[in-house]
Amino acid sequence: MTSYKELGLVNSKELFQKAIKGGYAIPAFNFNNLEQLQAIIGACVETKSPVILQVSSGARKYANQTLLRYLAQGAVEYAKELGYPIPIVLHLDHAIHLNFANLVLNPGFPR
């Protein structure tokens, strides 16, 4: 099973604790493809903002959970290349059915 730390991602609980103490919000964006992810990371690096990358059931069907996982890992490296390594969380967005959550978690989606 893949850990979020192995992908260079951060824990949302820790990120929220910092945001509460610092008095700022954390943007969250759903992404389905590379172009969306590039825009999200570019904007967040430019504003030096942490970000939550969200994956919906539609994204999982469209792009595949394995590819999405490694796109998130690539986002971490891309932020570094752009000059500012922002904290990035990968989040399962709106899992309506338990079987969807299990399908995402069991094959190694970071947690």
Describe this entry's structure for a reader.
This protein has about 110 residues and is mainly alpha-helical. The protein is about 50% helix and about 10% strand. The protein is built from 5 helices and 3 strands, in the order αβαβααβα. It has a 3-stranded parallel β-sheet. Helix 2 runs parallel beside helix 4 and helix 3 crosses helix 4. The longest helix is centred in the middle third of the chain and has 17 residues. The chain is globular and about 35 Å long.
Number of DSSP-assigned strands: 3
Mean pLDDT score, rounded? Answer: 85
| Major sheet attributes | 3 strands, parallel
Question: What is the approximate shape?
Answer: globular
Strands of the largest sheet, in order across it? 1-2-3
Separation of termini? 9 Å
Radius of gyration: 13 Å
Run of helices and strands = HEHEHHEH
Helix percent reads: 40-55%
In the predicted model, the low-confidence regions spanning at least 5 consecutive residues are none
What is the count of DSSP helices, taking H or I runs of 4+ residues?
5
The helix-and-strand class reads mainly alpha
Strand content: 5-15%
Keywords:
single chain, 111 residues, mainly alpha, 5 helices, 3 strands, 50% helix, globular
